[in-house]
Every structure is written in C-alpha cells, then in structure tokens.
C-alpha cells in the first residue's frame, strides 16, 4: 500500500496535514459522510474546519484519490476505493451502503445503444433493497 504522501505526490498534489489525515480516515474503509470524516480528522489534528475538509475531499476526488457517491435521499459520502467502477447497494430501511463488484470493471459498463449523441463515460448503477438487519427487524415486527 502506498503511503498518503506517495499518493498525493503521484497526483501532483501538495502534501498537507489535512490531506494526509483525510486520506488516512478514508483508508479505514466504508462510505463516510463529511460529518463523520470531519469528526475523525479532528481526532488526528487539533483544528480543522468543516470547510477545510470539504476542500480536501474536493481535491482528492478531482485527483481520483477518493470517490464521491450520493445515493438519492442521502448526503454525499466518500470512499477510498477508486478505479474499479464498483457499484453500490443501498438499504431502503436504514441507508446502509455496501459495495458490489462491477462485472466489467471499467466504465461505462452498461451500453444502452441509444445515447442521443452523448459521449457516455459512466453508467451510475445503484441497487436498492433491504439489508440483513432491516430484513430481520421486518420479520419480527409482525
Ligand atoms: Zn437496513
Ligand atoms: Zn463503494
Ligand atoms: Zn458495472
């Protein structure tokens, strides 16, 4: 695994403590909301504004070091798993998100054949359903 410093340098980004801290938080895995990322960054650095965290996430996402997803009805979330065009399954009950591997591996993995002249570079696929915990809750509800 490359270090945060190596990742930033590989993309030509300046190495700063907030950027390293955000990369470190994202490397822990999962799909994190900005509030959660900010909370964890503050455990590592004394004073970081929410705006600074937004700025870092923007820079990391533009550089391809983090990926932003925004399922309908949920705030934006960020993750470190990039470059594999994986998809997500979102729970309708609690909003839990899990990764689903893309069968193709690179975008766009679906071809509708009709693009109205657009040059298509991505098919955003989101699966919706109920997570195991919500299924269990539902079956004990009645
Ligand atoms: Zn759920
Ligand atoms: Zn993901
Ligand atoms: Zn796919």
Automatic annotation (TrEMBL):
<keyword id="KW-0678">Repressor</keyword>
<comment type="similarity">
    <text>Belongs to the Fur family.</text>
</comment>
<dbReference type="InterPro" id="IPR036390">
    <property type="entry name" value="WH_DNA-bd_sf"/>
</dbReference>
<protein>
    <submittedName>
        <fullName>Transcriptional repressor</fullName>
    </submittedName>
</protein>
<keyword id="KW-0805">Transcription regulation</keyword>
<feature type="binding site">
    <location>
        <position position="91"/>
    </location>
    <ligand>
        <name>Zn(2+)</name>
    </ligand>
</feature>
<dbReference type="GO" id="GO:1900376">
    <property type="term" value="P:regulation of secondary metabolite biosynthetic process"/>
</dbReference>
<feature type="binding site">
    <location>
        <position position="94"/>
    </location>
    <ligand>
        <name>Zn(2+)</name>
    </ligand>
</feature>
<keyword id="KW-0804">Transcription</keyword>
<dbReference type="GO" id="GO:0005737">
    <property type="term" value="C:cytoplasm"/>
</dbReference>
<keyword id="KW-0963">Cytoplasm</keyword>
<feature type="binding site">
    <location>
        <position position="131"/>
    </location>
    <ligand>
        <name>Zn(2+)</name>
    </ligand>
</feature>
<keyword id="KW-0238">DNA-binding</keyword>
<feature type="binding site">
    <location>
        <position position="134"/>
    </location>
    <ligand>
        <name>Zn(2+)</name>
    </ligand>
</feature>
<dbReference type="GO" id="GO:0008270">
    <property type="term" value="F:zinc ion binding"/>
</dbReference>
<keyword id="KW-0862">Zinc</keyword>
<keyword id="KW-0479">Metal-binding</keyword>
<dbReference type="InterPro" id="IPR043135">
    <property type="entry name" value="Fur_C"/>
</dbReference>
<keyword id="KW-0408">Iron</keyword>
<dbReference type="Pfam" id="PF01475">
    <property type="entry name" value="FUR"/>
</dbReference>
<dbReference type="InterPro" id="IPR036388">
    <property type="entry name" value="WH-like_DNA-bd_sf"/>
</dbReference>
<dbReference type="GO" id="GO:0045892">
    <property type="term" value="P:negative regulation of DNA-templated transcription"/>
</dbReference>
<dbReference type="GO" id="GO:0003700">
    <property type="term" value="F:DNA-binding transcription factor activity"/>
</dbReference>
<dbReference type="InterPro" id="IPR002481">
    <property type="entry name" value="FUR"/>
</dbReference>
<dbReference type="GO" id="GO:0000976">
    <property type="term" value="F:transcription cis-regulatory region binding"/>
</dbReference>
